[in-house]
Amino acid sequence: MYNSVHTNTGIKSFAFSKLVNLTAQNDCFDIIADKAKTIVKDSASWNLTRDERRELYQAVGRTLDSKNMSSAAFRVIHANLRLYEEEEGVDLTAV
């Protein structure tokens, strides 16, 4: 389903999020881990609302963290936090 959904809809992020959760729960996350690690770059061209992007980054970041991929998890969660900075004009550079 993930590959068949066009990037101009939030369904793509929802499908990817569910795919990440499904593979993590069934001990086969390794098949999608590389894609999860680059989700910030890959999803940049997707037409997502800020909330959809936050939900996606949060779900992927948590899963990466649970799989002990802390460096990748940090990058994704940091991108999630930066979305708040953009919206609220808060400077998170010290974080």
Give a description of the structure:
- The chain has 95 residues and is an all-alpha fold.
- The protein has one domain (2-88).
- It contains five helices and no strands.
- The protein has helices at residues 11-25, 33-37, 39-42, 50-66, 70-88.
- The longest helix has 19 residues, at 70-88.
- The protein is globular, with a radius of gyration of 13 Å.
- The relative contact order is 0.14.
- The model has no long low-confidence stretch (mean pLDDT 87).
Distance between the termini: 36 Å
Rg over CA atoms:
13 Å
Shape, per Cα inertia axes: globular
Tally of discrete structural domains: 1
Q: Which spans of ≥5 residues are poorly predicted at pLDDT below 50?
A: none
Helix content estimate = 55-70%
Counting copies of identical and different chains, the oligomeric state is single chain
List the helices and strands and how they pair.
Elements: H1 11-25, H2 33-37, H3 39-42, H4 50-66, H5 70-88
Helix pairs in contact: 1-4, 4-5
Features:
95 residues, mainly alpha, 0% strand
Write a brief caption for the model:
The protein is mainly alpha-helical. It has five helices and no strands.
